[in-house]
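Let's study today's protein:

:::
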Amino acid sequence: MKNYIFAFCISVLLTGCATTENIKVSRSYDGATVAIVNMLDTQATAILIGTTIFQNAQAKLSLPNHDVVDLTTSITTNSLEKTGRYRVIEVKDKSILGRMKNVDNLFNTPVWDISSQKELVSDVGNELSADIIIVIKDVYTDDFIYGTSAVLEGYGLFNRSMLGIEKTSIYSSLQLIVLDGNTGEEIAYTSERIATPLASDYDFEMLENDNVTLDLIGHVVEGQLIELNTDAVRVLGFN
């Protein structure tokens, strides 16, 4: 029988970076139409890093009753609408989402792809009649929790096992890319990441069918993404 001990769920790590310090969206965008394109993965990532590489494992997990994509879109929409400065469009068209799936911030975009990315964003902006396009995406980040060589993707559960000592955290990361809907130029960019330590006893191999832990992950991730998304909107100057 499994024994779950939720000893603490306090966000102890919150980090982020932006293209410039205290980015502010120009007042020239007052009254702008903002399209939100949410490309977050619908599944969480579970990562196990053991004492040796032979113990390492990774899996994708569905989180029943937790719609992370809808949540983050709603948070961004509400944050913008309450300012009274923007008209917001939530993009759900699968064709547009498919075309925008590879759009990334300038740091991660190869120089030879920048021109074509601008053209794509401009085309989508014109199609949506949007002055600004905000792309919400997963982040592939280094292990900012335990300092291993693991690459953390999006959001999920990270278990570090070393010589019989186990540490577990639920983590989330996202990036918001603000693009000019007319020119396709990047206006601003910020990435955020957070981790919450968790004390629990679970079987990694059975995690996919462990509804109790899946529900816990879902609840914690939702809280983390609310915090990250709200902070990202503030950093970008949408106020």
About this structure: Residues 211-235 form the longest helix (25 residues). The first strand starts at residue 13 and ends at 18. Residues 29-236 form a domain with the Rossmann fold fold (CATH 3.40.50). Residues 155 and 172 are 4 Å apart (CA to CA).
